[in-house]
Amino acid sequence: MKKKVILLLSILLSSQLFMGCASQPQEEVTECYVTLEDGENSTYCPVHAYGDEFTFPEGDKNAEGTFAGWVGMDGLHQPGEKIVSQEFMTFTAVYTSPDAGTILALNSQRGGHFSMNSNEAMELPSPYEDYEGESHDDFFDVWQDQQGNTYEGGQSVKVENGDILILKAIYSTDYSKAYKVDVHLNVDSEELDYYRYVKKGYSIPLVVSYVPQDWKFEGWFDSKTGGKRIANEDESFSPTKDISIYAHWKKE
User: Fold this and answer.
1) What's the average model confidence in pLDDT over 79-102?
2) Which of 110, 107, 77 is nearest to 94 (CA)?
3) Does the CA dihedral 60-64-66-70 come out positive or negative?
4) Which residue among 134, 153, 172 closes a domain?
5) Which residues contact 68 (CB under 8 A, 6 or more apart)?
6) Are 36 and 142 in the same domain?
7) Do 15 and 72 lie in a common domain?
8) How confident is the model over 131-143, as pLDDT tens digits?
9) pLDDT single digits (tens) 172-195
């Protein structure tokens, strides 16, 4: 059967966003404590005050597919379920297809979720593929479903047509399972330096987030001066031990 893969959504969520949005009815709203997104042209704010109770509505009955619920940073919510707004919250409608299985991968630890559907096996995302540029003392370990089964990032999973598999990202501080990567931009300021624990067998992107004026990036090395080249610009790196990585520069 011809593979049919449709990326439904890839949305990063943050409690510091959505300070304003379109509203129903047509009145000006300066703050939106709960935002609902159901299609490209259907965004509205049913809650405008901190601490107000909110009941999730039904999905769009005219939408293609079967409504599965409202997904947010804390998981999937069903119509009729009540919450109390504690911060700026956004929920997106998720629909399943009778012709494909759906995977919903929630990463509340880093504030994002992914949804995919296909009638063939799908490759689970790896959170390590996202550039973070900041230090974290925990690291992605596995994806876990509602029955407690675990999956690795990059693993292929087949979901039956019409079904949905909901996964949650599990993070760990068991450093015996990971390597520590210290990334140094090797410039006058150390503010852009960071470290990241990487689970054994995974890769992280090495992104040049800053280029000093009149300098040219020459690559990532395992020593502040000299040393062995680790990667070129924006390449991924798979550590095999704890390591410090330094950007090298050449005067233009």
Assistant:
1) 90
2) 77
3) negative
4) 172
5) 76, 94, 95, 96, 102, 104, 164
6) yes
7) yes
8) 778 899 999 999 9
9) 999 999 999 999 999 988 888 999
